TrEMBL record:
Pfam families referenced in this protein's UniProt entry, alphabetically: Bmp
Domain of life: Bacteria
Coiled coil: none
Protein name, as recorded: BMP family ABC transporter substrate-binding protein
InterPro entries the record matches: ABC-Purine-Binding, Peripla_BP_I, PnrA-like
SUPFAM superfamilies from the UniProt entry: Periplasmic binding protein-like I
Stretches assigned to the ABC transporter substrate-binding protein PnrA-like domain: 41-332
Origin species: Phytohabitans suffuscus
Amino acid sequence: MTVRIPRLSAVAAAALLLAACATNTTEKAATADGAPGTGGTKIGFIFVGPKDDYGYNQAAYEGSQAVAKAYPDLEVLTAENVPEDDNAARVMEGMVRKGAKIIFATSYGHRDPALKVAAANPDVVVLQQGNIVDGAMPPNFGTYFGTVYEPVYLAGIVAGRTTKSNKLGYVYAFPISQTLDNINAFQLGAASVNPAAKTYVVNTSNWCDPAKQAEAAKSLLSQGVDVISQHQDCTATVIRATEAAGAYTVGYHADASALAPKGWLTGSEWDWGPLYTKMIQTIVAGSFTGSPYNANFRVGLKTGDNPFVQSPYGPAVDAPTKQLVDDARAKISKDGSPFLGPVVDQAGTVRVAAGTVPDYRTIEAIDYFVEGVVGKIPAS
């Protein structure tokens, strides 16, 4: 039985529909907690990095602008460079004081501040991007994300078919479930078409540190890696270093093919606008609580609401490779998964039994590297 919990008040829903002051406002994190604003209801978005990072934050920002276009009578507030600490709660509270009734906290580390703000403001819907929250959640809170490891698996197929050295590289930030899922999916995709392929990993312990990213790319290239992908918020540094070395790039978060005209293969891009808009429609209708969004909501190839697209192919990708990708996408969409068993870890232990399709929660609890990944998970 589904337990219904109190939904947004009719006043809040009406305010969203009738909101005035239709100016779209962009503000820096340093000023987002200013004096209470005037005018009608607003929608707030916070980003952990800059909106033009060729990566995660740019994709989320573009999603916020799609919301502004879809709801021209509402004011969209955005704040860049919001840290994953109490500053995030401060910025969100500033948006609430200015009239925000919906807030999207778009970074993994924004979870706890978002929960705090939701608990303190029961008339504000707070949506957090990327986490799973176990246990009870405030009725005005929800998490959401996309199964981006699916297109990452498809990009791994392209990488596995393209490499000449059988050495792929992956630069990542932190060993959280999302990055481990992506690294493993990339390797599994590559190995599905090239069993000799291995993925060498380097972690930077930072979402966007160009100096560390440059050093990581240099290290991978020096080992003979000829295809590099990444899970970093800002992607330009790694892509430029890879292109300069004459190696191939697999992108992430946004289309950065312009940075690698010769070496670009493909990538995985977020397209948040349609999902953000659909979530807001649900809130405006007064049916947020008890809906999929008021939960740990995941969308992907199987749901039809997937918030990602595969990046365009580069010139090095041939027709047979594209066909392999199409076949794999169709299989995942129907009844498969990048993690269809058997899945074996680095130690040779079977983690997913043969023929088993693990559910989303199981995949997001992965804490190991699969066979074929070269490198160790840093101790926490």
